[in-house]
Amino acid sequence: MENILTWISAHQQLLYIVILMIFVGIEVIGHVPSVLHTPLMSGANAIHGVVIIGAIIVMGKAENDNYLALILGFFAVLLGMLNVVGGFVVTDRMLEMFKKKK
Predict the structure, then answer these.
(1) How far apart are CA 89 and CA 87, in angstroms?
(2) Each residue of 67-84: pLDDT tens digit?
(3) Conformational region of residue 15, where left means phi above 0, alpha means psi within -120 to 50, and beta covers everything else
(4) Which residues contact 91 (CB under 8 A, 6 or more apart)?
(5) Is 30 helix (H, G, I), strand (E, B) or coil?
């Protein structure tokens, strides 16, 4: 427990920044009009594509006996792909709402 308190006191500024980012993110996302959700989803998909590329690079640079890096890289690629595909599905469904019905 003492190690945790020491780490918190050593990284106090970093923790304040993370907490502030959480609140600012919630405020920004909460005030986005519904018309802008589709472009924001497309931007988030592009960012997660970069995350996938970074995870593949980490897996490629990892040594063969470094199982932790390989497992974490695999899960990063897997979860990133799920996020990208899910984001495109949601974006496609949102765009379908704007098409005229026959």
Answers:
(1) 5
(2) 988 898 899 899 888 888
(3) alpha
(4) 38, 41, 42, 45
(5) helix
Kindly provide the b/e burial profile for residues 70-94, where b requires at least 16 CB atoms within 10 angstroms of the residue's own CB. eeebeebbeebeebbeebeeebeee
Tell me if residue 24 falls in helix, strand or coil: helix
Measuring CA to CA, which residue among 37, 84, 76 is closest to residue 60? 76
> The tokens of 50 are what?
């970069």
The sign of the CA dihedral 11, 51, 57, 86 is: positive
| Phi and psi torsions of 63, nearest 5° | -75, 155
**DSSP character for 33?**
-
pLDDT in tens, 1-40: 899 999 889 999 999 999 999 999 888 878 877 777 667 7
Which pTM was predicted?
0.56
